[in-house]
Amino acid sequence: MRHQFDGTSAEHPVGESLVDLLRRRASTSGDKQAFSFLSGDGVTEEAITYRQLDQRAMAIAGHLQSLAPRGARALLVFPPGLDFIAGFFGCLYAGIMAVPMAPPGRNRFASSAEPIVDASNPSLVLSTTRQHEEVIASKASRALLERRWVAVDEIPAEARHSWQDPHVDGRHLAFLQYTSGSTSAPKGVMLTHRNLMANAALTRQAFGTKRESRAVFWLPLYHDMGLIGGVIQPIYCAGSCTFFSPAAFLQRPALWLETISRTRATVAGGPDFAFDVCARKIREEDRAGLDLSQWEIAFVGAERIRAQTIERFTEAFAPFGFRPEAFFPCYGLAEATLMVSGGPRRSAPTVVYVDSECMSRKQVWEVPRHDPAARALVACGQNLPGQRIVIVDPETCVPCGDGRIGEIWVQGPSVASGYYGRPDATAAAFEGCLAGSREGPFLRTGDLGFLREGQLFVTGRLKDLIIIRGRNFYPEDIELTAERAFDGLRLGYCAAFSVDGGDRERLVILQEVEPRRRDLDKDRALQAIRHAVVARHEVEVYAIALVRAGSIPKTSSGKTRRSTSRDRYLAGELEVLAEWRNDPEEIEEDTTECRFVLHPRVVSEREVESWLTRRIAARLRLDPSRVQATTPFIEFGMSSLDAVEVATELARWLGRPLSPTAIYNYPTIAALARWLARPSSDAPAPHARHRALPLLKDLDPDAVRHEVQQMTNEEMEAFISRQMASMQQELAE
Question: Cα separation of 470 and 215, whole Å?
Answer without folding.
Answer: 19
